[in-house]
């Protein structure tokens, strides 16, 4: 057998190894055996390398995230040093007049929270953001116009309106042809505790810009002035610190709930059972896997491991359904719903691929995406995208046909390709939506539309044909292929006959007129000859 240690040594010589192997082998059978052993070792090594790549890929993503956090911390350090320098300069130039104590702290609070901008004004001007009210006590701290830039080329992508909320950053794009008070359309909602904001150094290509890093995406925005950019950076960092402090205080308060042995006396507002329930719920919310669930979902989506992402979403939702509703539960549910929306968007992009890509991925790829969308509660959208995907596949298959030879030969190929594709679509639909009866009517309507397109192509070919025998043969071919759909419970024979009835009648009338004209001409010739 092959000695694996020799291949890993630094002084390994393949020529010498081959010579020794040939000298030790007495027959071709032994050489073939050694060859198979080396091939098996090569395959095992390749599989091991592949596993190591997948294993280190998650570490690479984690390292990228840590680098982003490090960039944010470096910016904070730079900002703190700048503040310290300004404070020292202010001490040198301060006058003897003392300011009234508390004014500076009050000014910071006034800068941080602008009471004139509340969540109601956001709902009135931004379309599609009603879900932001699911988290109670959300307030709008700051908002302004920004220009979204491409992070690589620094080219302006679009003008946006950014809203800094007390726990997230809302990005809305402009509506060009708007009516009423709505001016913007919801684009993204970024959680503050999951993002990092980084200052972009001014250069000839870009000025007054800053980056918002949120795994696995990154955004770049440009402010109108340097002062506005500094204001955005400062407000985001202050809001993040305040949000972290609030969550830490909430965790401490939950941890400080007394046990049932510490509660006694009828004067207590809560019963022992209620306090025990709150204590148990607080412990359940502190589960390690639950706290890591949003980050794990980000990794699963980035690695395109959609099945594990779906299982984690369902596990988390089932886990939270057993807890009583409060602010902490709503906060966790909001994060999971945000990742579920991201997963749905990725799956939708999978189904909106090109027909060539759909053919390469095969029906299984579309079935996988459809099944996950149904589990996410988007069966109607999954059905619509599935039918559009199948339409692209069928159109692509029909476009490969070449019009050559006789009409009967082309109709035979056309009917075979069309009804085979329709039969495959029926089978795939029944597999993907076997538990969703409500989508069957949509598929029947789609199938009739496809059949109408096929009849249109058939009619154009029949219009160029000569003789009723050719028309009859082509119609018979179409009916034979259509009858195959009856095996899967789809009988379109009557529909096909109804669609072809007008064209067949036109062919019959045209043939009748030709026969009448021919007979009239023969009669005229006969009378002219014998009279």
Q: Describe it for me?
A:
With 531 residues, the chain is of the alpha+beta class. Helices cover 65% and strands 10% of the residues. The chain has 16 helices and eight strands. It has helices spanning 4-8, 14-24, 28-93, 103-112, 119-125, 226-255, 272-285, 288-302, 306-321, 327-351, 355-375, 379-399, 407-432, 440-463, 468-483, 493-530; strands spanning 126-127, 140-149, 156-165, 168-174, 184-191, 196-199, 209-214, 217-222. Strands 1-5-4-3-2-8-7-6 form an eight-stranded mixed sheet, sandwiched between helices. β3 (156-165) and β4 (168-174) form a beta hairpin.
Blueprint (SSEs and pairs):
Blueprint lengths: L3 H5 L5 H11 L3 H66 L9 H10 L6 H7 E2 L12 E10 L6 E10 L2 E7 L9 E8 L4 E4 L9 E6 L2 E6 L3 H30 L16 H14 L2 H15 L3 H16 L5 H25 L3 H21 L3 H21 L7 H26 L7 H24 L4 H16 L9 H38 L1
Helix pairs in contact: 8-9, 8-10, 9-10, 10-11, 11-12, 11-13, 12-13, 12-14, 13-14, 13-15, 14-16, 15-16
Give the CA-based shape: extended
How far apart, in Å, are the first and last alpha carbons?
107 Å
Tell me the fraction of residues in β-strands, as a range. 5-15%
Low-confidence stretches: 94-117, 259-270, 354-360
Order of helices and strands: HHHHHEEEEEEEEHHHHHHHHHHH
Question: Which labels suit this protein?
Answer:
531 residues; alpha+beta
């Amino acid at each position: 057998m092959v000695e694996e240690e020799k291949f890993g040594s630094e002084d390994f010589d393949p020529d010498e190894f081959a010579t020794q192997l040939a000298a030790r082998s007495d027959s071709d059978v032994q050489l073939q055996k050694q060859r198979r052993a080396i091939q098996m070792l090569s395959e095992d090594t390749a599989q091991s390398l592949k596993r190591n790549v997948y294993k280190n890929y998650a570490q690479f993503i984690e390292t990228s995230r840590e680098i982003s956090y490090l960039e944010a911390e470096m910016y904070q350090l730079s900002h703190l040093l700048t503040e310290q320098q300004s404070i020292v300069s202010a001490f040198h130039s301060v006058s003897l007049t003392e300011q009234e104590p508390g004014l500076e702290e009050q000014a910071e609070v006034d800068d941080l929270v602008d009471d004139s901008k509340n969540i109601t004004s956001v709902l009135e001007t931004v379309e599609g953001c009603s879900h932001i009210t699911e988290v109670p006590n959300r307030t709008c701290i700051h908002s302004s116009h920004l220009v979204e830039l491409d992070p690589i080329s620094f080219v302006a992508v679009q003008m946006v309106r950014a809203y800094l909320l007390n726990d997230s950053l809302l990005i809305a794009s402009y509506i060009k042809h708007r009516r009423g008070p709505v001016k913007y359309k919801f684009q993204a909602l970024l959680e503050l505790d999951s993002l990092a904001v980084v200052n972009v150094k001014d250069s000839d290509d870009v000025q007054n810009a800053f980056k918002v890093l949120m795994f696995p995406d990154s955004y770049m925005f440009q402010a109108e002035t340097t002062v506005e950019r500094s204001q955005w950076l400062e407000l985001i960092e202050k809001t993040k610190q305040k949000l972290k402090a609030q969550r830490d205080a909430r965790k401490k308060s939950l941890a400080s709930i007394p046990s049932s042995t510490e509660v006694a006396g009828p004067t207590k507002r809560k019963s022992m059972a209620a306090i025990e329930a709150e204590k148990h719920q607080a412990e359940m919310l502190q589960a390690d896997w639950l706290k890591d669930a949003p980050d794990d979902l980000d990794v699963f989506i980035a690695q395109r491991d959609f099945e594990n992402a779906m299982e984690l979403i369902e596990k988390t939702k089932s886990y939270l359904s057993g807890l009583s509703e409060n602010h902490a539960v709503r906060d966790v549910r909001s994060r999971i719903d945000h990742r579920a929306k991201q997963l749905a968007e990725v799956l939708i992009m999978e189904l909106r691929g090109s027909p060539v890509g759909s053919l390469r991925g095969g029906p299984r790829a579309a079935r996988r995406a459809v099944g996950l969308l149904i589990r996410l509660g988007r069966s109607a959208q999954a059905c619509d995208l599935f039918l559009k995907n199948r339409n692209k596949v069928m159109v692509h298959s029909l476009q490969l046909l070449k019009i050559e030879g006789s009409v009967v030969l082309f109709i035979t190929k056309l009917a075979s390709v069309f009804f085979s594709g329709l039969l495959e679509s029926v089978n795939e639909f029944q597999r993907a939506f076997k538990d969703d009866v409500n989508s069957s009517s949509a598929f029947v309507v789609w199938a009739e539309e496809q059949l109408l397109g096929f009849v249109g192509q058939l009619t154009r070919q029949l219009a160029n044909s000569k003789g009723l025998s050719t028309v009859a043969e082509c119609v018979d071919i179409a009916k034979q292929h259509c009858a195959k759909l009856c095996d899967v419970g789809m009988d379109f024979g009557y529909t096909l006959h109804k669609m072809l009835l007008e064209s067949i009648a036109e062919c019959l009338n045209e043939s009748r007129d030709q026969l009448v004209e021919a007979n009239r001409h023969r009669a005229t010739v006969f009378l002219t000859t014998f009279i």
